[in-house]
Design a protein that fits this description.
By secondary structure, this protein is mainly alpha-helical. It contains seven helices and three strands; from the N terminus they run ααβββααααα. It has one domain: hpI Integrase, Chain A, CATH 1.10.443.
Amino acid sequence: MLLLFTGVRRREGTNLKWTDIDFQSQTLTIRRQQAKNHKDHVLPLCDFLFNILKERHKVSASSYVFPGRGNRSHVTDFRFWQSQVREKTGCKFMIHDLRRTFLSCAERLELPYYVLKRLANHTVTSDTMVPYIVVSMERLRLHIERISAHFLELMQVEQIAS
């Protein structure tokens, strides 16, 4: 759910620590050590995902949001869950497809290009205007909530159909 509702990369999501979640501002930070472009990446969390994380944090015994075995490190392997989802849905997918789905949904909702780049934490080198545009966290939050609402609507339709 984290990867789908934020569009972060697998490694960025699995390495998250609770200290990377700001429960006051309802944001998460991908630290530069984990980010592909080596820059801190702060994203607003939609209400749906934020509530899940709050509940998870209450019962967590690990410093990691997604602990591995023995709570000493973070989860590293998705093969077991991935095969279960593939079997239940008949859909062959890769974990990176969650990022593609997030960004494709954002594009279908006609989010501006510079917002897509900001959400994806992509460095812009060829477009001289995009680096000058500063998108506030609250404006990003509006876009994240729109994407979340779209996914939640799809999930509700899916639940009714099954």
